[in-house]
């Protein structure tokens, strides 16, 4: 069985880097745990860092967080469906919202459970995922303001998650102005301006964060140390908190061109033949991970000499070149991961998870 490892020390150092960064700018933040897919072992490592606030898009994951650490503040970070309102109110202290009907249901359910449920109203700033349109925001808040058992603790926005719209100083100033307008009109403070996710961190580092932005929701930069503007690892952070170790289950010298009549494979792909490779051979290794677990495009072999040739449902094929380069049957190949690769592997029941 292939193994996904989490490096405890590197995760801790990434966390400390971000904690120091946010303290420098007097910004509070919560850790997005959805990448971990509710894995108890990895969630415990996360909570042991001293995290006070955990964000997730799955209620079952928040339930696990509450079982592991009851006093941590939990935040549900997508619009909740009607059938899940009760469970969401039970396990989430805060939720992100953009639909008035949904907030009314949350208010009613919070009353039944004897709770005050805190919400962040999401504002549309251009990426066209969730969010109230700016010209409707004051009227929207006026309706929410009247609801019992609801406390509005922030305005928030999401960028880059759907259409790739990048955050900018102008967009965040716009969010700050919405907050000021509402506070002046209704005479009530909104504590948080939740500027966004990992993609907004470079604005802070480059001193482009508008005054008033005081809350972040961070996942990818914590786990991968990445500057999403430059698409590189930030100096002082680690990009390899997660690693995949896959066992070699076949290693043989084979022709470089398939033999026979070609049709589409189960993925609907037809192999294109490079005629210059006829008659040539190379060593090919098969490892015990496949499309059922992860898309190969999200895998980065730690050995730059290895070439990913393709994958079937349960096997990944690698080109080792003219010699086997010291690899052997039963040995392992190690991969670093992109975010979506780690997410797929964490969601796979066929991959062992281990802390190192």
Automatic annotation (TrEMBL):
Superkingdom of this protein's organism: Bacteria
Keyword annotations from UniProtKB, A to Z: Isomerase, Pyridoxal phosphate
Cofactor: pyridoxal 5'-phosphate
SUPFAM superfamilies according to UniProt: PLP-binding barrel
Tagged with keyword Transmembrane helix: no
GO molecular function, one term: alanine racemase activity
Cross-referenced Pfam families: Ala_racemase_N
GO cellular component: cytosol
Gene3D superfamilies per UniProt: Alanine racemase
Annotated ranges, domain Alanine racemase N-terminal: 7-224
The protein's name: Amino acid racemase
Native source organism of the sequence: Algoriphagus sanaruensis
């Amino acid at each position: 069985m292939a193994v996904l490892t989490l490096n405890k020390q590197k995760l801790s150092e990434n966390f400390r880097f971000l904690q120091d960064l946010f303290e420098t700018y007097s910004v509070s933040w919560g850790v997005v745990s959805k990448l971990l897919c509710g894995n108890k072992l990895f969630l415990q490592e996360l909570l042991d860092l001293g995290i006070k606030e955990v964000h997730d898009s799955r209620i079952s994951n928040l339930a696990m967080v509450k079982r592991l650490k009851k006093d941590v503040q939990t935040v549900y970070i997508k619009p909740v469906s009607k059938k899940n309102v009760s469970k969401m109110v039970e396990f989430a202290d805060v939720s992100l919202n953009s639909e008035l009907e949904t907030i009314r249901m949350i208010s009613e359910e919070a009353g039944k459970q004897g709770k005050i449920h805190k919400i962040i109203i999401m504002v549309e700033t251009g990426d066209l995922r969730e969010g109230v349109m700016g010209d409707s925001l004051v009227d929207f808040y006026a309706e929410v303001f009247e609801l019992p058992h609801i406390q509005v603790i922030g305005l928030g926005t999401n960028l880059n998650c759907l259409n790739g719209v990048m955050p900018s100083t102008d967009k965040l100033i716009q969010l700050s102005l919405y907050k000021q307008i509402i506070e002046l009109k209704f005479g009530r403070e909104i504590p948080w301006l939740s500027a966004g996710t990992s993609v907004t961190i470079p604005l802070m580092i480059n001193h482009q964060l508008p005054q008033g932005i005081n809350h972040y929701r961070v996942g990818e930069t914590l786990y991968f140390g990445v500057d999403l503007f430059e698409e590189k690892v930030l100096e002082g952070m680690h990009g390899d908190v997660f690693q995949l170790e896959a066992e070699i289950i076949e290693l043989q010298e084979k022709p470089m061109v398939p033999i026979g009549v070609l049709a589409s494979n189960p993925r609907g792909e037809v192999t294109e033949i490079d005629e210059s490779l006829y008659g040539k051979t190379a060593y090919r290794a098969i490892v015990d991970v496949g499309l059922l677990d992860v898309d190969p495009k999200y895998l980065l072999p730690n050995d730059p000499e290895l070439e990913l040739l393709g994958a079937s449902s349960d096997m990944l094929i690698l080109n080792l070149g003219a010699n086997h380069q010291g690899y052997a049957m039963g040995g392992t190949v190690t991969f670093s991961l992109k975010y979506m690769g780690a997410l797929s592997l964490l969601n796979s029941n066929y991959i062992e998870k281990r802390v190192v």
